[in-house]
Amino acid sequence: MATTITLKRTGDKVPRSECAEIVYKALKAGYRLLDGAGDYGNEIEAGEGLARAIKEGIVKREDVFITSKLWNTFHEKQRAKDIARHQLELWGIDYFDLYLIHFPISLEYVEPSAKYPPEWWGLDGAPHPTKVPIQETWTAMEELADEGIAKNIGVSNFQGSILIDLFRYARIEPQVLQVELHPYLTQESLVALSKTLGIAVTAYSSLGPQSWLELGMHTKTPGLLTHDTVTSIAKTHSRSSAQILLRWAVQQGLAVIPKSSNHDRLLQNLQVTDFSLSEEETKALSALNINYRLNDPQTIHPALGIFA
């Protein structure tokens, strides 16, 4: 396996060993939720960081809530079950606390021995959508829950209509919906629907374009961290802009999964439960909504327009 992870848009290389160290330091700092996925390409290293923290007595396995995700090329029932077990092996653990369908998109199977993670493209460099129904994939997810491979199951990047349809046939209902959500994309209707259905919502990209800028993407979009509204509220509370954005989400009852390789920011991002935003401040942040979506698979292929 390569010793670096290459960022697709810029070609920058990130040492895989850094991932193990970041996970270890995050656990040492007090983090107890690790959000992973097969597509992230760092499962072995994340597992190494966890194993080190367990070995040193910082945490026990049962103290840490580990999320992973099923990638698009493994939506067929048996392949979904097989890859989940493979992912556990890469992590070096016996179960996931939460396992999500990463996208409501099925792509042509790519043999892991040929390419893992397979990303969006087949071995010929092109995406190949297939016709595996979500119901087949969800049946596999339910069986993973039955077998203790995943304690909880859920979905990611699902919108209202497909979520409602899933509830029509689910034997085990999804417990979590993970979606992009920040003041540029507030998704109030989807959050309201999720609450009605009894699904916990996890927000990703809570800091807006920042993490995408690091990938060389969305470079023309004004960042939320430097937006006047955000910085003004941050100054009022003597907090960082990131803390304000995270608090805005947490105060709505959402879970957040901020990511950072900077140790000081890791510590800062934990400190969002000891202050509150006023109703006026919350409304001002929500008013920044422009329905701006950073993570849209349709930019890869027209047939992947799940948000169309």
UniProtKB/TrEMBL annotation:
Which InterPro entries does the UniProt record give?
A: AKR, Aldo/ket_reductase_CS, NAD(P)_OxRdtase_dom_sf, NADP_OxRdtase_dom
List of residues binding substrate:
102
Q: Which GO terms describe its molecular function?
A: oxidoreductase activity
Q: Which residues form the active site?
A: 40 (proton donor)
Site described as Lowers pKa of active site Tyr, positions? 69
Identify one Pfam family in the record: Aldo_ket_red
The NADP-dependent oxidoreductase domain sits at: 6-289
Q: What is this protein called?
A: NADP-dependent oxidoreductase domain-containing protein
